[in-house]
Each structure stands twice: as structure tokens, then as C-alpha cells.
Amino acid sequence: MPTMTPTPRLQLHQITKRYPGVLANDAVSLQVAPGSIHAVLGENGAGKSTLMKIIYGVVAPDDGVMLFNGRPVHVRDPQQARALGISMVFQHFSLFETLSVAENVWLGLQGALSLREVAESIAVKASEYGLDVDPHRPVHSLSVGERQRVEIVRALLTQPQLLILDEPTSVLTPQAVQRLFGVLRQLASEGCSILYISHKLDEIRALCDACTVMRGGRVSGVCDPRQTSHAELSRLMIGSEPPALPPHRAASGDVMLEVRGLTLERPSPYGTALRDVALQVRAGEIVGIAGVSGNGQSELLEVLSGESTAAPAGSIRLRGEDIARCGPVARRRRGLHTAPEERLGRAAVPSLGLAHNLLLTRRDAVRRGGWLDLKALRAQAAALIERYGVKAAGVDAPAQSLSGGNLQKFIVGREIEARPSVFIVAQPTWGVDVGAAAQIRAQIVALREAGCAVLVFSEELDELFELCDRLYVMAQGRLSPSLPVAQATVEQVGAWMAGLWAQEAGHVAA
Ligand SMILES: Nc1ncnc2c1ncn2[C@@H]1O[C@H](COP(=O)(O)OP(=O)(O)OP(=O)(O)O)[C@@H](O)[C@H]1O
Q1: pTM for this structure?
Q2: Which protein residue's CA is at the shortest distance from atom 8 of ligand 1?
Q3: ipTM value of the model?
Q4: Same domain, 472 and 348
Q5: How far is the CA of 45 from the centre of ligand 1 (A)?
Q6: Ligand 1: which residue has its CA nearest to atom 31?
Q7: Which residues form the ABC transporter domain (predicted)?
């Protein structure tokens, strides 16, 4: 007898995947209808990315069956997945740094088109979906947000029947998120199914028509997110609602970090020049830098962390001392710690164990004469893993074996635990589940309460409004005047993100 429902686009039965020490997927079953936008929700390390990689042929399951359009398939590699009509946008990008956007995409298409044709189709696709991507830019010059747009355009170019997105909006602005949702709804209405991994419950409820929740490698629930409240989703995922932030304390202290007259030519032809940037961060306050990525944030972050020492002498002061020409080690010695936005590569050595990754910025286990106290180092890593709820096979688990959110918790924790007097962090809760995000924010607030001066770069306005006492907005290499969060509105900050603060003379607060 013919069935009333259409053949599912994707069916997974009892998919199991073991890694040393963890059962990443434990008999997972999941079904996605044609044209459905299906959310996969779960705390960090729940097994979402592993499951998606199995569907896309990056990881082979130990057990289980996959059907695509009703037919059993064994997807051996991503090339075969794409041939079937499955495309994926990864959480960690897979672009070659030294190549241009078009060259990267062209490589993936295996010579089906000329490079010029690829560049043209990228430009067409990008403008069709309102994604700002220049095919000729070299990838190394792109910010994280820009790279993500490239990945999305690249996936769309393959005309997928099933598109997998692993936290696609984590670095997009609110406007760009809305545009992306428009794109995804359009794709779905054309019959393309979408698997959508996200930690943002509001997005899932606004976008998705089905939701599979995972916990500890298993499916812990299936629901219609449009009919499920924020609190219920939270509970399904982490067993409770995330705690609210402790209240703000009023007084702030001395100026700890001061930037004045910071003008800097662009470090590469595609970088952003900094123009007369000025900011202050006082002890006991959290100051945010809002703005769309690619507007000079990475350049500012580099000169603040000491990764670049190109800032003019006297333009960056720590407690009044000129540190513009100090490297990162000298800055850390003076109490300034930075957690950059790119976790794998800049903040962690992917192949190195977690304990050894502590050594990148922490010297607590280094004894006189450079002797390394391995026992102390491992104990330090173990304590961090425990305190921040990092899911990892142990202190020697290589950084690259951690799920995105868990590595994030480890790195942010590593810097917070250093008890810095000035802490600079970019996208502190990128890819982190709601429970862990609340925990990281609470730790940042605790740092402030202990008198630390905190500077947070984030593209998430909600996060900045929740965390910060004051905000600056960055646009085209310039920094707006500072704005107390209590007086700021999303609309105003949005307008400032387009560089429009100059027109609001008189509105400026100190
Ligand atoms: N290559 C690997 N080697 C060893 N363990 C791995 C590997 N990849 C993933 N794991 C482990 O499998 C588990 C599931 O990880 P996965 O990346 O699928 O989680 P996730 O739900 O996507 O998390 P997140 O939200 O943080 O991205 C984690 O405990 C992780 O440490």
C-alpha cells in the first residue's frame, strides 16, 4: 500500500561511533523530511558534529544504517556526499589560507568549471543571497565571519538536496542572520532539507520545524521547536535552565588599559587600517567592542595582545606604562591576557594535548631553569577541565579531538584562571552551549568583581548587552565614543555599526 508521507530525505538508524574513551554517537536514529529545516540541539560534546560528519562521509560510523531518499547509502567521503546532493558548512573552516576565495571553491569543484567561471558564480550566488563575498580576496585576509560566508556560498553552489550547517550564525550580525534565514527558508521551500546545528534556542524556534535533541551521544528527545518553549528546550538539552548572571556592581576603579591616537596602516592589502582609535578600560568594568567582523577588530586585537607590535609608541598603555612595543609574553607578565577568536591555530596547537596547550600562555608549571613540572601541569589541566566542565578524554587529549565548544571552554578558562588584571577576549561564547555560555559569562563577571579590567569583542549584541557596562562600536577601522549600556539601544548600536555615530553629536557619553 502506498504511504501517505513522502519518502524521507534522510533516515539514520542506530548510528554508533566510538572514539578512544568516548561513545560519541550511541545508536542514534533521526529522520529528516524533504524541505524540512531540522535542528540538532545538544550541549557541547553531545555528538552533533560527529553525527553530521558521518552523514557527510568525513567520519565512518562503527555501526548503523543511513538511507538517502529511501535508498541505503555508504558515504565514503565528502566527494561522494556532494555527488549524492549532500553539502556541509563546517564549524571549523576548511579553507586554504594562501589561496583566494575563488581558488578554494574551484578546488572543491574538481575542475568542473574554469577559475573565472567559478569566480563569477560565487559573485552571483553571493549577491543573490545578500552574502558579501569577494571571490578574489585571499582567505588569510578574511575574518572568521567572512570565512563563514565563503563556506556558505561554496555549499550553495553545489545545489544541495540536504544542506548541513554546523553553527552557521555564530559569527554573523543580526541582519546577516535574518538574511541567512531568508536563504534557508527559500531553499527549504524549493525542497532542500536542512540540518541545522545551533546553540541558539531563539533561532531554532524561529527557523526550524523539527528538532532532535542529543545528550551524551544519544537522542534525548524529538520535538517541534515552534511548540516548545525556551525553558523546555533548555531542560531537554542540559537538564535545567541556565542560571542568570549575578547583578552588576557599580563602582569601577583606575584606568588599566588605555589606547590613544592609535592609527595604523592596514597590515595587508585586505586588512583594515585603524584610524585614531581611542579607548579606556577601568579596573572593575567590562567594556564591549561591538561591530561586524572585518571592521578592524582583528587588527585592534593583534596590537592589544602584542601579537603585532606595530602600534605607534605610546598608543597603548597598561596602568600608564607604554606597552605598544611589548610582545605577548611581556604583556602577560604585566597581567594582560588575551583569548583570540581563532581557537585552533592561534589559541591552541591542534595536535598537542590539553595539558601542554596550557604552556602557550601559562607558566605556572615551569620551574626555575625552565624545568617542566609535568605532574603540576597535568594537575592544572585536570582542574581546569573539572571547573569548566570540559568534555575530553583526559589531560592528554589533543586539542583537535575536542568538540568546538569544549575547546572554547578550555581556552577561555585557561586565560581566566591566570587571574589577569586586564583580560581581552574575542567571541567568548562562540559555539558554546547555553549552560556553558552562562558559566563563561559568570566567570567574566567574577573577574570584573575581583577588579579586573575586561574588554570583550563580540558580534553578538545580546551578549554585549548582557555582559558589559560600556560599549564602543567599531566600523571601518574607527571606534565610536563609549556608550553606557544602560543608555544604549540595539537600534542605536546597529546604526553605529554602519559608522553613523558622527551624526549624533551631543549624544556622546564619556
Ligand atoms: N577525532 C576525535 N577523536 C577523539 N574524540 C573525538 C573526536 N571527535 C570527537 N570526539 C569526541 O566525541 C564527542 C562528541 O563530539 P562532537 O564534536 O560530535 O560534539 P558536539 O555535540 O558537536 O559538540 P559542540 O557543540 O561542542 O560542537 C566529544 O566527547 C569529543 O571529544
Answers
A1: 0.72
A2: 401
A3: 0.96
A4: yes
A5: 5
A6: 402
A7: 10-241, 259-501
